[in-house]
Amino acid sequence: MLAVIAAAVVIVVVVIVLFWTLGIAAALIGAVIMGITTTIIKIFIVPKFEARDRYRLASDNVRLSPEKLEVRFDNLKNGYVVDCFYTSPETGRKFVFSTEPFPSDPTPYLGTVRLTIVTNRIDYSNYYVETADLKDRL
Q1: Residues forming a β-bridge with 72
Q2: Same domain, 52 and 70
Q3: Whether 100 and 36 share a structural domain
Q4: Closest CA to 116 of 136, 99, 101, 102
Q5: Residues 18 and 45 in one domain
Q6: How far apart are CA 130 and CA 13, in angstroms?
Q7: What digits encode the pLDDT tens for the residues 30-67?
Q8: Which residues constitute the domain of residue 30?
Q9: Quick one: 49 and 100 in the same domain?
Q10: Contact 71, 102 (CB under 8 A)
Q11: What are the contacts of 74-83 at 24+ separation with CB within 8 A?
């Protein structure tokens, strides 16, 4: 009787140990596979979609000239961001369009460069700011 109980305990312990070690191994393998997949998607797939969206915006939508520019340091993006202010002449609504972050302060160059906002005709939240001239000077 003691031998049967001891054998049952040994079997339960072995099953728990195997489940524990294989469970952690499976989780680690899954995490590595997910990390590799996410990296591949961010490096190869996302830029293609962003380029396609920019091309679609540039060829199909409206270009706006900002009325006022302000530079601020964005801690979340870890860089200087130029806020472009625009007021719609049709509705009078005010919009703020932000550039991608710059590593250095672009304030000295804002008087000599031209920033253009490319946005969807209907939904102004789908936009980007053309900053090629500013990037060349920084």
Answers
A1: 81
A2: no
A3: no
A4: 99
A5: yes
A6: 64
A7: 677 887 888 888 888 878 877 777 776 666 688 899 99
A8: 1-60
A9: no
A10: no
A11: 74/101, 77/101, 79/103, 80/104, 80/105, 80/106, 82/106, 82/110, 82/115, 82/129, 82/131, 82/134
Residues 86 and 132 occupy one common structural domain: yes
Per-residue pLDDT at 18: 63
How much is the pLDDT for 27?
64
Same domain, 10 and 74: no
In this prediction, residue 125 carries a pLDDT of 85
* DSSP-assigned states of every residue in 10-72: HHHHHHHHHHHHHHHHHHHHHHHHHHHHHHHIIIIIHHHHHHHHHHHHHHHSEEE--SEEEEE
List, edge to edge, every strand of the sheet that includes 62-64. 62-64, 116-119, 127-130
Whole-angstrom Cα distance, residue 97 to residue 80?
14
Closest CA relative to residue 101, chosen from 71, 66, 127, 58: 71
Question: pLDDT tens, 91-137?
Answer: 899 999 999 999 999 999 988 888 999 888 877 888 989 988 888 87
Query: Is the overall model pTM greater than 0.90, yes or no?
Result: no
